[in-house]
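Section 3.1: Structural characterization of target chains.
Under the original work plan, the team committed to producing a structural model for every single-chain target entering the pipeline before any wet-lab resources were allocated. The record below documents one such target. The sequence was received from the expression subgroup and is listed exactly as submitted; it comprises 350 residues.
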Amino acid sequence: MTLEARLVRTLGRFELDVELEAKPGEVVALLGPNGAGKSTAFRCLAGLLPLDGGRITLDGAPLDDPGADVFVPPDERPVGVVFQDYLLFPNLTALENVAFGLRARGLARSEARARAGSWLERVGLGDHAGHRPRALSGGQAQRVALARALATEPRLLLLDEPLAALDVGTRGGVRRDLRRHLTTFDGMRLLVTHDPVDAYALADRVVILEAGRVAQTGTLAEVTARPRSRYIADLLGTNLLRGEGRGGALVLVTGAGVVAAEPVTGPTFAVVPPSAVALYLTQPVGSPRNVWPSRVVDVDQQTDRVRVRLEGPVPLVAEITAAALAELALQAGDRVWAAVKATEIATYPA
């Protein structure tokens, strides 16, 4: 049984139209830039926002189907939700917060508290049952929110930016804890995030949204090997070029030609690793088959590596060493030559 959804919703001038699927035991990450539609998709799945079109089914049962006049309210859906800010009730203890959803579903107070206590033990917070949210750390609050979501035994678990509220120093440890706890849940799990590190650490598969549509989906290895948009390439830290294969070379919209090791024909993507881009102050001679005049737009030093953004007939980001930066003495506005060996360029149909 699976989650199968086509989410169609219009909010002002924004239109969401995406298809999602998740299988039991699978963690699917919904990635995308701000305004891509991640939060709208999340709210539709949770039942906080009804669909204008499409359909949501979970284990074969419809949760939202405008065409059939079906809409299951949020509190009646077998869906657990962990919000970005956790939304714990400040006046309730950790135990009472976890028991809240069980009580809302009609469970007797004593049974709800017993189950809540068991879940707090499972997430390692049995000795914090009597603490209110203000006495908990960010990581502890997240685990309480996770226990509250899982205590109702949902079939689908939705997590909205679950690590965004944490400081950088604690995020790594909490991420590892979250991964461990998620493996104990055999339902479907959908993670909304803008952070590729979270997706790498937690997800089995990614769905990338742009402007309310699915731009790409697949395993992380598949997406990394063949990004299909500039946003995805930037997310992965690589260069993505698109053009038309003519005479064996890739011709960009700027008219510049890019030569790869294998001839290309028709609409084609080319991936150029930043580390493969060599920079020179004068036009190089010798082996590189791709040499282009460029202008330095930005120089960003990151520990021992430096990323240099270039504009020109072939816009690129080059990654060089700090020693190379010192030797070249590059600054924004400088004119340089960028060179890439044909064997360093991977191509695939657009």
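The mean pLDDT is 89.
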